Amino acid sequence: MSPAAKKIRRKDLRQPDEFFTVTGEALDWAERNRSAIVIGAVVVVALFLIGWGIRWYVDSREALAARDFYAASELFKREQWDAARDSFKAINENLPSTEYGRLAPLYAGYAALRGDHAEEAAGFFRAFLGSNPSTDALKQLAHLNLARALEASSDLEGARKELQAAVDIDGPARSDAAFELARAAEAGGDHDKALELYQKFLGDYPDSSERDLARSRVLALGGTPPAEPVPAAGASPLQFQVNGLGGE
User: Fold this and answer.
1) pLDDT tens profile 109-141
2) What is the CATH class of 19-225?
3) What are the DSSP calls for the chain, one per residue?
4) What pLDDT band is residue 45 in, cutting at 50, 70 and 90?
5) According to the model, what pLDDT value does residue 60 have?
6) Which of 162, 111, 158 shows the shortest CA–CA distance to 139?
7) CB burial class (10 A; 0-12, 13-18, 19+) of residue 83?
8) 228 — phi, psi (to 5°)?
9) pLDDT at 57 over 80
């Protein structure tokens, strides 16, 4: 036998194995605490089932809201304004906590406004704004369309306030709101303010589709429109026409 070899003694063979010792102690503990273990297992399973049930409930309501929203949108596309309004309204009333339920008042307002129910539309847009819209773009659209509903209801001052609120938000409808704010000032008889707003609109949004109309209103109000942008040197007449800067 080499010097490194270890002599195994009979006493060593009689020593209990550590794994079996720990396992035996664990089994003894489990036996003594069987009731607590069973209760704990039942609680864990119950929590899992509750969580799964909540998730299923939420998902099923979201799916239902999406289905109903699609159906209401189809009515809107077919210009069935009253039916679309009622459908969007029902989604908000029945499924208010869903994503589509929160969005529904905005579309109910669109439908009501298209159906010549301006005061009702204003109520929908206010309700949507009161629900704290999830994005600035949606908030801006709500202010802009609330202004249109108020204007249709002859509340010109209220419309101007909502248009200003829409202009103050950095979003995709900002240029539309700026033009309509100038138009509302003119409709309200404040020609100096209207001229100022039209000129500002032309300076801020020179490529807007409302540019030519804004220029005509500036001239009608006795003002001078801003100079047209100068085309880059060397640009061809075709390029001028494509950009809306050329003549014939």
Assistant:
1) 999 999 999 999 999 999 999 998 989 999 999
2) mainly alpha
3) --TT--PPPHHHHTSPPHHHHHHHHHHHHHHHTHHHHHHHHHHHHHHHHHHHHHHHHHHHHHHHHHHHHHHHHHHHHTT-HHHHHHHHHHHHHHSTTSHHHHHHHHHHHHHHHHTT-HHHHHHHHHHHHHT--SSHHHHHHHHHHHHHHHHHTT-HHHHHHHHHHHHTS-STTHHHHHHHHHHHHHHTT-HHHHHHHHHHHHHH-TT-TTHHHHHHHHHHTT--PPPPPPPPTT--HHHHHHTT----
4) low
5) 74
6) 162
7) middle
8) -65, 150
9) no
pTM of the model: 0.69
Q: Where are the domains of the chain?
A: 19-225
Query: Tokens for 84?
Result: 């679309």
- Planar angle of CA 130, 131, 134, nearest 5 degrees: 120
